[in-house]
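Let's practice the habit of predicting before peeking. Look at the sequence and jot down your guess about where helices and strands might fall. Then scroll down.
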Amino acid sequence: MVELIISEKPSQAQKIAEALSDTKPKKIVDNKVSYYELTHKGKKIFVGCAVGHLFNLREKNKKGWTYPVFDTEWAPSYELNKNSGFTKKYIEILSKLTKSSNEFVVACDYDLEGSLIGYNVLRFIANKKDGKRMKFSTLTKEELQESYERASKHLDFPLIESGEARHIIDFYFGINLSRALTLSIKNATNRFKILSSGRVQGPTLKILAERELEIQKFKPKLYWELEALGDIYSKHKKDKFWDGKEVKKVYEKIKNEKSAVVKKVIKKIQSQSPPNPFDLTALQLEAYRLFKINPKDSLAIAQTLYTKAYISYPRTSSNQFPPQINIRLIIHKLSAQKEYAKLCQELLARKELKPNNGKKTDPAHPAISPTGIEPRKLSDRENKIYDLIVRRTLATLADPAKRESVSIDLDIKKEPFISTGIRTIDPGWHRFYGRYANFDEINLPDMKEGDLVKIKKINLLSKETQPPKRYTPASTIKELEQKNLGTKATRASIIDALYQRNYIVGQSIQVTTLGLKTVQTLEKYCPEILDEEMTRKLEQDMEEIREKKETKEKVIHDAEKHLSKVLKHFKENELKIGKELSEANIETLEQESRIGQCPECKEGTLSIKRGKFGLFIACDRYKEGCKTTFSLPSNALVKPTGKICKECNYPEILVIRRGKRPQSVCLNVDCKTKAVPQEVLKEKRKCPKCSSQLIIRKSLYGSFFSCPNYPKCKHIESLQNKNESPKIS
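Done guessing? Here is the structure:
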């Protein structure tokens, strides 16, 4: 008997093979694809892998760009997308292994996606309808061995059917709504602009657009505050004065007072419970708060830590450590890491380790935790996420913190003022969470009723109310979770899609004219596309498939029926929708191309233009004689920042290059921010390729050494950052 174990990724295949093999597993490389051969208790086993989804949905019997589309079929990913061409060789290797095997085990991630990936390999490559199922939450040797020994005899079909229903329904909504929007512009104006929407994308954009409109419509309102500076800081108890005459009257009354009388002192000791363990959303929110790491990136980093066996499975909705998790063993392993040793030993000295579990659960996976395996060679961001997860785990097991709040009521010429303070009197879990437990500490001196407080100055402050805060990627994910829109694993990618389609920009999310107009147009002519209730209902239906309360066929049929009505309504208004969206797209493109005021003529506007040799920036008064132009890098996306350089008053632009952080750059190549140090100017270097004396050139990014024989010799050396690749201007 020969068994084939199917994993979701190459790194997981290696972990499984090493965990189960009686000796060192044999690694075989065929057409640059690795698989493993091993023996486990006398049984021969192959461990092969997919690379995510090897099969995806496509339109069956495609008849051009038309809609509605409900006739679909599964096909190899490499046939659907050129970028997925690499998956072909993985299918070929798995096909080869299935022919040599007669038992099959799915060991993909235990969730909707992983279950569907494994099932598709079985039914489309192995031509099998069932197999065994390994279920694990970490890739540690112990858990993988236990998972193999206790593998289910059958696949998790409710999970598979729920995952397949989600794929099919999301495909229906994505392809039909995106085609409808795109064709509406084409049919109305004969212009081609790809627009997209989806089951969750539309409602998400609507949420962001509503906030954007709130901000745009917001009118600030003037108010006043009174503050007293002296031995302690205090404010008038009324906080905000909306009547200018009233506040001036009070100010005139007390402005020359030099002391205040303590009327009352109230102290309260509050117990601050430890945080709950991390579910995915909480981790994404905390990573953004502390490190400004986007949710999509924090998920990717956590996934990498999981595949290296450093943490448990991150795509979980649970914020609980269930009893079956040996949390004491995890802490014991962590104690071997120098940075956490002292804290771990303190916890291990306790008779019982009880986490402060939250209320959220996940039937497949517990909350995110470290495995105890010491990481090696982590990047800076990986180390941050790992450290955050470890310290959060430790903090959940620690004692509550105690904080004392103090409120002092003051009397200044019969006007009530109040001073508040707060301090930590027992840090408790704060010590374990370390620098991530950052709380205000406002210490007030001990006072009692009747004491006098010196006042140095009383200020009358004029302020304005502020508009609602913009959403960030992290707070958007939190909002979607609260509204039950999308899933823990897809919300970050939905937000990313809105960026890609130019519906939103910036980390403090601003909805573009195109995004706003898309929402306004759809609300006017086809509001069903933006309906939260419909999206929420489908989420519930798909969850009921998983719970065996509903069938896959009925949920898909109901979704198709609903979408048909939506598309019929859309078609009736197609030309009106297309015309309005086309106008919005043109306006958005114009806004995105405007960089700022021309620094030379002071009258024109700098805009991004396209020329014979690519993109460049020029003044729009070139017909009037302004010849101001700036070259742009060919391998980057350039966007306006709306900012002016503090050194030279030239506009700044945002340069976005793949694999690197966006960089704000001054347009002026002679700006002081790009000045070359004197010692560098005196330095003489020879070209390592042709031995010529290197010269200094300038580019948008600053100065750099370049070979004088350019372009024959293209050798360059950065002066300011060796990791940068300057472009010759």
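How did you do? The longest strand covers residues 259-272.
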